Queue: 4 jobs
Job 1
Amino acid sequence: MAEVVGQSEVLPYVPSKAPYDAEAFARTYEAAKAPLRKKRLLATFAEYGEFIHALRKLPRVRFVPMRELLSPGQDDHVRCALRFDVDMDPIAAVRLARFNARYGLCGSFYLLHTAMYYGVFDENGFVRNPRLREWVRALVLAGAEIGLHIDPLTVYFLHHRDGLESVRTELNWLRTGGVSVNGVAAHNSYPLFGAENFEIFREYTTAERSALTVNGVSCPLGSVPLADWELTYEANYPKPPGRKIITGWFRKKPQRWMTKQVSDAVNNRAWMRTYLLDNPVYDRAYTVRVWYHGPGRWTLANAGRFVSRSWLWQVDLATMLEAVQAARPASTVVFHLHPVYFAADTDVSYEL
Amino acid sequence: MKHSDGEHFANCYFILSCARSGSTSLCRILDQAENGRCVMEPTPNLNVETRDAMDGRLHDLEAVVDTCILPRIAQQRDKSIIYGEKNVTYGPFIAAMYEKLHCRFVFLKRDGRDVVRSLLDWHNRKFGTIYRECKDTSGVTDSAFASAANLLAHNDTSDYSRPRPLPGKEYYDEWESMTRLEMCAYYWRRVNQLYVDGLASIPAEAWIALDYTNPSAGDILRVVDFLGLEGLDEQKIGQMLDSRINSLKDRGVSDGVPTPPWPDWPAEWRRKFDRVAGGMMARLGYYESSRDALQNAAGEEGRFGAFWRAHDGGEPWYRWMYEHRKAQHKAFEEWFRCVAQRESLESVADFGCGAAIGYTDFFASIRYVGMDLAESIIHWCRNTYSNPRHEFRAVDFIRRPPQKEFDLVMSQGTIDNVYDMDAFLNAAVQAAKKWIYITAYRGYFGDLSEHVYRHNEEQGVYYNDISPAAAYNTLKQAGCRDISIHPSPTGREDIPFETVIIAHV
């Protein structure tokens, strides 16, 4: 039975038994990478190796999965986590997880349930890619942390399906066979919908509202405690924003950042500075945010207090690592990585 | 603490072994001694430290012994027992342990093929975590998968402890595509290499080797005697050996498909294993020599040399070869003149002489014996050269080397193409009374810890990369001195340096 929320009908989220179009996946996979390749934003797998080798050389650095980022522990180390939002390339994700395994590194890989590689909606429900199990299995055997890159707002507003149920269902599916899923990472959504995906959780509502309505479809916000879905964290570790000194293009119009889409936002300096350092919607509980943009380009935002606060825009690896090394003891660093950016030499035919 | 304190700890020993080599079994057996205790994998177990040391990330090895091992040995000080322990991670620390503790070691070795089979079984049926980066995810049982799912990589110090090739080193670039069998073979080779090297640096009376491939109670009693343990007899030991301690069955695992024992391995598996671990198999005595590995890998026993035997390039081809490497020949001549000024060099053997281009002239006044596999070219030499001081022999000089017959044994660019480079070096040493001078034309591979063999099945020829370190060890063990293994510039872009090996016999 369809449930009516607000003014439009929201269909239940149910698995469909229709076959998944593997050929369409292959086409989409390559097509989605094509513009990035054209702009020379794709690095090779080897560049990831260089990054890891250089990072491991830093003294005082300890690697943890995202789920242990804020756990009590040694304070004399800089605690680093490798966060992989698998927006479009699960094959590269497996390659990177396996590389991490060589060095005892546990990256945290969040699979995007609204991505083509994960599955598609048809008139009957949601059709999962049968290869998904293979990728999850490979990630688990490589010792990676698995999580869901949650995108319930897209499920609600673009597919008119029950987005909360989609998250719950896919978490349970991922957990099949004893896979432990403790965390989720919210897919960016504020500029698109005016709310972050993590706002579905009771712990992370950022405004005093219980629902968000877009084009007549309503999504409940703040209705689910993390523990109800056996979760312990959301990977942004969001907290209410502090007092912000917003600079640049968005200084006079923070609403513009919050609600308007910017072309190629991650390569827009002002947008990214606001997103990583001066976010008017939420703050992050960890100190240093590092974002990889493609070959040789790293952005670092250290939200520490006073002199430790810093902003480096699209610098090279060595400069970025110097800043990581300079972070105060007990700093927490998250490397925001997207596998596709290391996939110049990985394609759909890559044999897993 | 140096030896003065270490003397107190002389009653301690360590079992050195790869994983899945029987060390748990031996540990439990030795723990039955009336006057001793043998502890299984005490912590800290050095999982992280051993890998960091192998990767060059840890330099102060003595500090590791001080902080991780010495305290628990010190606790045994007043107990008047012989204390032993086993971990599979002592490899990089043997010299430091001996220096600090004056301890003894039991080096437990096992046929690498058995070890690899067992590791594969444990991965597929028990843990799912052996070389987690390996592409091969098939064969892992549900229980092994669940076990792996409960252990994230950062907490998996066991898997971290296993060696991986470093960037720029052998196997690094191909590691991603290697099978788990190859990775496990690499593990077995690297760890045993550490043991062999470590034990070579301490007195021989401080350690004993035990082959656990098919151990008998008598073998173990030999170790018991070496360690001074009491209260263990043949019957007791035999019973414990029969119980298959720490086998999968012993650990209650029955599901999953067992990995076949190595005699049932398909040819491809054997090839893969031998490519990685064949040299160490020979070194540990499981193959007669690494030639066995390569011939097994090639699957064509005795084909070595077919290329030269059938080669019909004749003298022009050898002359071209000589001209191509003329700088190396001239460098040799320069070296010879210098040495001959200091000491008498009256007889020379040339291993792989080919058409002896250049050398019949250079050695016109002394005894020169050219040796080669290719009968046709030897026949040509005999018909072409008439110097009564010169002789040419068609012979496999590796299998049947002359015995202390020549002041100098030289060889130009032949060792790269033989089935066993260590055997080649040993043959040269056996044949020489004073010096050996050997060049390897395929390059200088300073980073290689072991020789790399490549067999061209079509040609029946080996194209090898010689490891200076391995060659040094071979010559050292053969009793050579003044060993010099160095790069020699060629002036060419394709191969900027060749390898020159010189040693005083």
Job 2
Amino acid sequence: MDKTYRFRNHFCKVLEDNYICLLLLLGGIITLVSDVIIGGKLTGDAIISLLLCAIAIVVIIISIISWKKISLYIEGPTLVYEKNTLNKQTITINLKDVSNVNVSRNIFEAITGTRKVKLDVNSTAATEAEITMCLKKNEAELFESLVSRHEEKIGDSIIEDQAESVETVQEKVKVAGITEVLAHSFFSLKFFSMIAVSLLVGVMALFSAEEDEVLTIIDIGMGMGFMTGFISVIAGGVAFVKQFFAYYGFVADRRENIINVSYGVFNKHNFKMPVDKISAVVITSSFIGRIFNRAYIQIKCIGVGDEETEKSIITLSLSKERLHKELLRLLPEFLPEEMQDSLMVSRNDMHKEPPRVKVLYIVYGLIMSAFILLIGVCAMSFVDKQFAIIVVAIVILFVIYTILFLVGKYHTSGYLLCDNHIVLCNGVLSRTTTIVRYKTIETMVMSEGLLLKKLSLCRGSINIKASLVGEVVDICHIESEQKQELIDRYLG
Amino acid sequence: MALIALNAIISPLFRYHRYRYYLDSTSIETISGYIFVKHRIVPIERIQNVSISEGPIDRKFGVGKVTIVTGGGDIDISNISKNIADEICEMLKNKINDIVIEGRCEDGQNI
């Protein structure tokens, strides 16, 4: 009979979850002490503090009772999560269905010697898709090993041999150097969105200038330019530093059929994902990355990358050749035969959208431009003459943006139908190349409008398992004749 | 306003005549839409659960909606008679059971 391993949240979870109540309690006690003991009378502030303290104590007591009644146990191939609080809940999971285990820690957990263990199930039902526990470091490692045993099917030895802990395994693989992390932090910056946001903030700041202040066109232009440049540099710097700390100490390795990824300084993450639960591989090249011919690989897997501090990357920004080697080392299952020799991440390697699509983009461009002009004309009637020139400039900027958007989209989109994979290339300034195995596509939607039908074209999308709600990947415009070929390949 | 009113009258007729669904041993397909026609395809082995729903108006006309849920999106077969909805549900249930049994046999588990 299988041994039962029981786990319960560490007490520091109560402290972490209720830190606001604890601060409130502390503040309340200080006020009470200063008013009643030092001042010698019960003031109105002291009564309010007393009430707040009482509320905080009740919340903390409820939290402690809930903490005592939540437990998790593993017996053989089954994991049972029991929550015997006011709303009782028992979740039973077959460990074979676990899509990933994430062991993470923030600064508070590093001080208390605990780890947050998050487990995701290969299901889109939110109620049973995610379980989070706060465990002591050695308990977290044992838990991870127990779950991994069923994912890897490598027997019980790993449980008994706790000497080979997560840290020991990581020592065997190459940790990314500071230069690589710095380079990745730079190449993954979203340059265009930073400028757009800065421009918006700059315009808003100028509009909120004092009304009696008379601004000339040169003043406005200089002001906007200065504000945009200043905010872009600050935002870029902050994003760069954040990226550096997020990816510091990056390690990605494969053991049997498990991908191990570890990274971070303040929020350290350690993911374990079975290869068969990975839905797709996404090769992303930011605008800066495209200029310098760099890209990084992300994976699509339920539960990975669904929180702000979680990144679903398995490589840092690398050159095409190194990226190809890394994909061969980590996930050769996602390399189609056509890509065995080199990684096709440029549009020239793919089937381009048929040239007739240009007609469609011109029509879209004209409709969008007419819509923007209409909004511009309406806006002109509401603003002062002084700002009319700014409205005209904004309208021109939006029209140029629309044209650039459509040109960028046409030059980036592409596709490749392989025997077992479909490769889809999307983007405008940045480029994402998604490699999906037909067997991991959940649903496919092909659509045709009146104009598309006239041009004998169609487009569509595929749904894959990713995060909690699934992800849609667009299929660019293809010839109508190829639609049936695509469906036949999908249905096998 | 006139255009919106006209669209509200015309579009259901077009949608009704356009709507098709197709089921076989491997997949479920639906074709729907008015100006933009959508062709949805789901292989049966990707289905996670199937449900039938009917609102008060549906009950009045004896129709229902079959919702087929997969790991990455749903597909609806709507406005079909209740009997056909039940038949589809039963057929899909049997298919899913067969697939699960096959999977367990491949894994060498006891059924």
Job 3
Amino acid sequence: MLEALQVFLFDYTFRTVALGAAALGAVAGALGCFAVLRRQSLLGDAIAHAALPGIGLAFLLTGSRATPVLVLGAALAGWIGTLAVMGIVRGARLPEDTALGIVLSVFFGFGLVILTFVQRLPLASQAGLETFLWGQAATLMAADVQMIIIVGAGALALLALFWKEFKVLSFDGAFAASLGMPVRRVEFLLTSLLVVAIVLGLQTVGVVLMSALVVAPAAAARQWVDSLGLMVLLAAALGALAGVVGVGFSSAGSGIPTGPVIVLVASAIVGISLLAAPGRGLLAELVRQRRVGRRIRADAVLADLYALAMQHEDRRYGHPVATLRTMRHGEVGIERSLETLAEQGWARELKPGSWGLTPEGEKRARTRFLDQDAEHP
Amino acid sequence: MAGPEAAASVPGGGPAIEVNDLTVAYREQPVLWDIDLEVRPGALTAIVGPNGAGKTTLIQSILGLVRPAAGRIRILDRPIRDARGEVAYVPQRGTVDWDFPTSVLDVVLMGTYREVGWFRRPGRAERIRAVAALEKVGMEAYQDRQIRQLSGGQQQRVFLARALVQEARIYLMDEPFQGVDARTETAIVEVLRELRDRGDTVVAVHHALQTVPEYFDDVVILNVRRIASGPVSEVFTEENLRVAYGGRVPFLHAVSDAPVADLPES
């Protein structure tokens, strides 16, 4: 444990790699918010897969496996993939998901062919190109991390600069256009930034799983907060967390590709968020439903007690629980409902096993079920 | 009061909106066919017509949001790109995601984005104007609310406030009364009348035929072609509606009989 901490804090290589993964997660998380809010999560997946042939071709054409060269190739191919999606939707009149599916599989298949071809070349330098499939953070050099940070910071600066344009475009594109905003160009810029975020992560996370790092932090962040600014900040933080923890696990676990580990961590964050977030989470919803259910059941018993009270001259007459249960057709949990009513001060146990309404309970029943004014019965 | 002067301030006293020979087609199918239209400044104009008549497309063409196959549109005697600051748009509220993570005030502030300009954010002055616009539609108490918590009528009033904050002279609204509660309907009508009395021009796509005579001064009856347009008293006739709706006019009897507002919605 202590050793792991020491590695974490003092090992230069690990620190470099973790820093790169954190920067990457932050950029992908922040820009992923817009992809998620604009319902373009699948576009991220298509861009990532479409980048693969670009990596292979960039290597073939230049003979270099320097990261900037490969990233440039990836970015170009990713962009061409995006344009292909738009072109298919407009020109061939196919639905967008079909276009995304076509582009994703065709580009990815083409990329695999090139990669296989490259691996058979009698060159020493092609080694490691296949790490772009699943990602290998260990291959990150200090220069790569530097590039991720500089390019990523540039992308985030542009995001800040065009914040209100991106926001209104994502919320209401037609209104943005009516303001005279060049919507096409703003859209182009936003999608370009998404392409940048994705290709930055290909070496670390890999083309197959990169879209998860774009979508997962945003989806998780949306569960917790209700403003776009906070959502982007939180998604950036969660993305960075997923990156660092993923790299940590991957390097500790000797040779597990980084991409799958990062995705597992990001998925865990999403899972926790879906479950536990206040307001939108499943647990909060469950609690809400139970509370509503309990109130409805208690209301039913209150109505029964009121009906019984109306039949008896003596308002202080107690009614056995068994009677109430029969009126609810033998339903279980009558005692629980009576307790709830007692907590509200609307009913009380007059003698063991016998219940009656309090004056407040009678008033409550009248206003609730008979729609009468409680003040003037 | 200010109405006549403001109306007269349109250059040459011409129409607020002028549409000539407008044809719009989606995939070779004409949506609007050879439309000629003049919208009177300082008046409330309804656009009515059956589903698929091209009402939304007409509004969006005037705003320059769809590219027409042919035709010319002038706003205050200018092309739309030179008149952006004079025009405010209220889209159908169903066209946006009301689960978007933002607040009521934030949405209204979007109406100031054009004048705020590139690279800048709305500041205190814009905030004050946005709150004032919310007050006009009776929503100032909701300024910090999440938009997903709003009812349909409240959403519509927020959209109206976003248009008001633009301080435009021409308001183009797509079904501002669609699915709203009675209170919202009254509030919107009041705001529209206030705008008209100031000399502004309002054009609204409208569905409930029975309220046209009560709410609007002018009407455009549309079904791909322009069937009729002009003052409600002159052109909102059974005959014109029959042409537009193909013989089966919803609540046609309402047009002639007096207490029209009490009829159920279509």
Job 4
Amino acid sequence: MSYDVPVAPGEKAEIEETTELSGESWPMWEVFVRARRGISHVHIGSLHAADAETALENARDVYTRRGEGVSVWVVRSSEVHAFEPEAAADYVEANEKVYRLATAYEIPEEVGQM
Amino acid sequence: MIGDMIVAQQMPEPMLESVPTWFVVLGRRPVVAGTGWSHRVDVRSGGNDGFRANERSFAYYGVMSSEERFQTIIDAEDKIEPPDWMPEAYRKTLIRQIAQHAHSEVIGMQPESNWITRAPTLHRTAILIAKVQDEAGHGLYLYAAAETLGVRRDEMQELLHRGKHKYSSIFNYPTLSWADMGTIGWLVDGAAITNQVMLTRGSYGPYARAMVRICKEESFHQRQGYELLIRLCQGSSEQKAMAQDSVNRWWWPALMMFGPHDSDSTHTEQSMKWKIKRVSNDDLRQQFVDMTVPQADYLGLKIPDPDLRWNEERGHYDFGEIDWEEFWRVVKGNGPMNRERVAHKVKAWDDGAWVREAAMAYAKKQAHSAA
């Protein structure tokens, strides 16, 4: 099916983006799921909920309906901190230091697996 | 291209001779450019896979202008992620599409929940509840994906309630018989999967990831629907007639789900370049028809199209023309169920206001007494 919204002849395709909203929205939470014992929790999605308790319940209902996990964490999205995208250029330095990689060193074949 | 700051040079260290890597220097900062990432410099990194894999994510930064970098990431089959720079039109197109997709999932709960209390067995009731719950979840994944583009969920809902946002027209048709629960799974969810599998390869990370989850669940939807129809078609003649009547009503609306002809589709070219859309409406529709006709044959049901026949030369089924007048009538809000669907949605939202407010008030009170 096409989710590419059909534009009727003569109709404008622009969306109206500013809207007056009444009432307060539930805050957003990030959901992390441990798929099985022995591995870390991994980010799986987000949801809205009034508090941590209901966020956990919603996360269980939405993200673990088919055995996707054995444990769930929820974290307020506003509590997640990240670098600005421009700062990513700093990571480049890590890539310059090839000598940090095991693969940068040649070991003669006769030495065998190392 | 950022001014004249780009200079290519080979790494001097003798140790790295086996890894002929090229640098692109932006200002005073050297940036590694890997194979294929830069169309400005003939960049080549040697046989060191660890190094190549590592540099991949970062090589986009600093080499080009924002716009070039954006398109380069897309051309390299990588994903655009929320903090990345993106053209305003890309952002708007995605919001529009993801919102309409999310609304479709949410409105799509109505035609099926109509039958929950009337399913013939407890088993079928449980399946239907699980399916409707999935649709709510799909709406949630999608609203969350749209929110990463800087639009609020409440805002999108408000626009839907005021008729400014659309949802898929298929949900503006009524579910008149129990067989419709089978046909919707088979044809409507089948058409949705055809499109959504393509969308898992889309360029926007959060949308593509949501699609992966959704496709897994849609597969259950389609299979339970087809199985339901198998049972009806193997049942009494009345049951089979009910199934045939249902397919007669849903076939054409299902084909309409793929949207206008490519020749009448306004944004296809740009959306293809941005990899928001990867296969055209007509190609997806053809794919769906080719896949579905043998499935109808197995059921012993007739597809209501006198022009439908296998074309040996093309290697595809030929099929008749969609009633485009009906298509546009429903898109513009005058289908059999448009008003009822939106009115029901608005009522559910308004009726639930006190619950949302009470939950918020409780959360605040708890936080206050904990402090």
